[in-house]
Structures are given as structure tokens and as C-alpha cells.
Design brief:
The protein has about 300 residues and is of the alpha/beta class. It has two domains: about 1-135; about 155-300, Rossmann fold. It is about 25% helix and about 15% strand. A six-stranded mixed sheet has the order 2-3-1-4-5-6, with helices on one face. It has a five-stranded parallel sheet with strand order 8-7-9-10-11, sandwiched between helices. The model is unreliable at about 1-10 (pLDDT under 50). The protein binds 2-acetamido-2-deoxy-beta-D-glucopyranose (2 copies). One 2-acetamido-2-deoxy-beta-D-glucopyranose binds near residues 101, 102 and 127. This is Fucosyltransferase. InterPro entries: Glyco_tran_10_C (IPR055270), Glyco_tran_10_N (IPR031481), Glyco_trans_10 (IPR001503), GT10-like_C_sf (IPR038577). Its main location: Golgi.
Length: about 300
Amino acid sequence: MLSYICSFKFKQLALLVIIYALCHFAVQVFFLLSLEETNRVPVLLWWTQFVHINKERVINCPNGEYQCLITTNHSNSADVAAYLFYGSRIENHDFPLPRNYAIPWAILHEESPKNYAPFLYRKTQSIFNITSTFSRYSDFPVTLQYLESVSSLRDSYYYVPVDTKNKYLKDIAPVLYIQSDCDTPINRDYLVKEFGKFINIDSYGKCLTNKMFPKEFYEIYSLDLYNEELLRFIAKYKFIVAFENAICEDYITEKLWRPLIVGSIPIYLGSPTIEDWLPNKNSAILVKNYNSLQEVANLIKKN
Ligand SMILES: *[C@@H]1O[C@H](CO)[C@@H](O)[C@H](O)[C@H]1NC(C)=O
Ligand SMILES: *[C@@H]1O[C@H](CO)[C@@H](O)[C@H](O)[C@H]1NC(C)=O
């Protein structure tokens, strides 16, 4: 949830697009369904609430043609044109049943796949008519939600030259690990611990801590993922552990983009289709292409 809040800035935009699209879609369904002439506004009902939207409000689609009421109030079900679900908060026992199949169900699931395990099954996915997820195959994909801009990958604002980084190696490890979620489906901490047997890793954050952050980062590191001072801090490192908390196609987070933005090399484990999204095939060390973490460590030692 924390990592969700901090990336809100980017997701807000994605969410707006999704909501406008849904509104458009819902209005069409609504008018198809309404037999009598009506002035009522179709309702988009967040059945499982999206965290930042709890006030009822009317939105106008950009061309002014449509209006929708967005609400979380379950009593508003008379004019519902679409039910919206927020993937990370779905509960197995909580759906608008019995289902009216004429009213579409729409899901926003941009957070970690680990947040709702039943989505691993196609059957669960197929109960929704409209999807917006990290998967490129969803109706409104948000695969690049954590990447603010392509220019942030191109510019050298945070870049520290390799010569300088090599000098830092007197004081710091070649590899950095910062994580606050220590219990993950991928068993990240176990993997990093194993990796640490072959190469020195500086570990700030809450997991496998062996170094202390400067005080000013205590609060922000898990909340403000792209904080400028934090980025300057991590830019000193040559390599950064970038293991997603779950392995799922197209599930890519700041763990990959942050090192690339600051000019460090991500040691990436996560989406099996990551090559499709990397700026360049040499942008990251892809753990899946090596036989062991020891092999990865040996490669790093040579560089
Ligand atoms: C929910 O909607 C019902 C019916 O429109 C209304 O009476 C009630 O006050 C609303 N509840 C909230 C918390 O807004
Ligand atoms: C939504 O999906 C369900 C299940 O696949 C289907 O039965 C229903 O007709 C669909 N409803 C709409 C409005 O598309």
C-alpha cells in the first residue's frame, strides 16, 4: 500500500484515462438499458474502493457529451452503469450478487499481483468485462506506470561517472539493496542473502539491514520513491538489486526504472518478458539469463 501511495502521481493520470473511458462505455450501456427517457446520470460505483476516491462526484467526459456520477456508496445501485473494483482490495465474499450480466464489471489492478492471488487464474480474470492492469493485454494497460518519462532515462542528471564510482568502492559496496517489504512471494530476502555470499551488498531499508540510511531518508525512502536526494544517494552505486516482489509478465515497478534513471545497473528479476520494455538489451543484468546468483556475482566482480 505504501508503494502505491508514493507513485500516485503517475497513476493518477492513468486512472483518469481509465475513468473517462469507463464513463464513455458506461453511458452507452446505460442508454441502451434505459427504456424510458431519463435525465438521470449513470453511476460508476466503486464496489471495492480505490483508495483515493471516496467523495461522490460528477465527472464530465472531455467532449462534454457525457456525465457520470462516481461514487462508493453501495446504496446508489439503482442507476449503476458499471461496477468498478480495485484489485488490491477485492475480497472473495464481497461482490454485487446476484450478478446482473447487463452491467459490466471493471477492474483496476495496477499493484502487485501478490495482492490478490486468485487473479493468477484466467477464470478469475474473465469475470471482469473491462480491465486495467500492468499487463499489456488488459484493456487499458498501465505497464509503464512507474516510469514518469522517457527523457528521465535519457538525461544524465543523476549520473555519476564510473571512475568516481570506483573511488567510492573504498567506502561502499558495489551493490545496493533497499527494500521495505521483506516477506514476498519471490522470497526476495532469501535470494539477496544468497547473493550476498558472493558479493558485498549494502542493505539499507527494513530488509536485511546492514547499513543505516542518513537520517533524512528514514521516513521518505518507502514513501517518496523518486525523491531527488534519495536518487542522488543511490546514484553512487554501480549496481542495484531490482527484484520485483512477484514474478509476473509485465509487472514492472520503480525497482527497474530507478537505477536506470540514476545511471546504475539494475540486477533485475521479475517480469519474464522484461526485454520487451528495456530501453536497450544491455540496460540491465537479467538474473533469469544466468545459471546462478554466483554467476551474476562473478560478472559484477569483473566490472
Ligand atoms: C448513500 O446513499 C443513500 C441513498 O442515496 C443515502 O441515503 C445515504 O446517505 C448515502 N450514504 C452516504 C455515506 O453518503
Ligand atoms: C460481462 O462478462 C460476463 C462474464 O464473461 C458476461 O456474461 C456478460 O455478458 C458481460 N457483460 C457485459 C455488459 O459486457
